[in-house]
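I hope you will forgive my troubling you with a question about protein structure. I am sending you one protein, given as its amino acid sequence and as whole-number tokens for its backbone shapes. Thank you for your consideration; the sequence and its tokens are set out here:
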Amino acid sequence: MIRLYTDDLNVNYDDRLIIKNLNVEIPDKKITTIIGPNGCGKSTLLKAITRIIPHQSGSILLDGKNITRKNTKALAKKIAILPQTPEGVNGLTVGELVSYGRFPYQNGFGRLSNKDIEVIDWALKVTGTSEFKYRSVDALSGGQRQRVWIAMALAQETEIIFLDEPTTYLDLAHQLEVLELLQRLNMEQDRTIIMVLHDLNQAARFADYIIALKDGEIVKAGKGEDVINRHVLKKVFNIDAEIGQDPRTNKPVCITYNLIKGEQKNEEIMDTIPAIPHAVH
């Protein structure tokens, strides 16, 4: 089932076209991961779909309706986004930050209802952050802080959650912790998860559907084995990759790779270097 999709979407930054006539479908109640080189338009796509930035032409449709025509609070009840580098938490406690997720449901007085408090406590419990409720967000580790941000997104009670590089700056254990949490939310609560990831093996392991972007266009979209293969990775990243199978998940895994452009450049450089003369005995 497809509830969210774009139709010939074009997005500019200043005079530069970043997203080009993009037609993308987001599978409902699945985990979708967007991969691609830096500057290819991954974050731009997320921001455009969630209406953080405007698009120049084309359409973004949710449940058959153009999101540009939706009321802001109404849209915030359907879509939540966790940006790449969340800011604005100085001096806030964990509970206060998570309460921001209830904004779409509050009246003009901004007071938390009993339902709001119940949802906040539930979001803290689900993300394993209840013990931090009265602690300053600034005092938390990177992994703890990321789980708190996810709790805020959950408190928004949306069926669709966007995350822009949710594992950035986290060590391996905390990366796995965050990704397993998102996987549980998808499997146990049918949340539709869309996230940008740089790690190809994490994308292959946790995603049901992968979208590979390059220069604002889709190179390939599909299941892990359809995207994480030598042909696609060569086209998207200019790498020659060796692909195997993860023995625990049976998902594709990138074992090693060489930079194709780099090899060619090195060969050209070596051709210009004079041979080392043999020692004279």
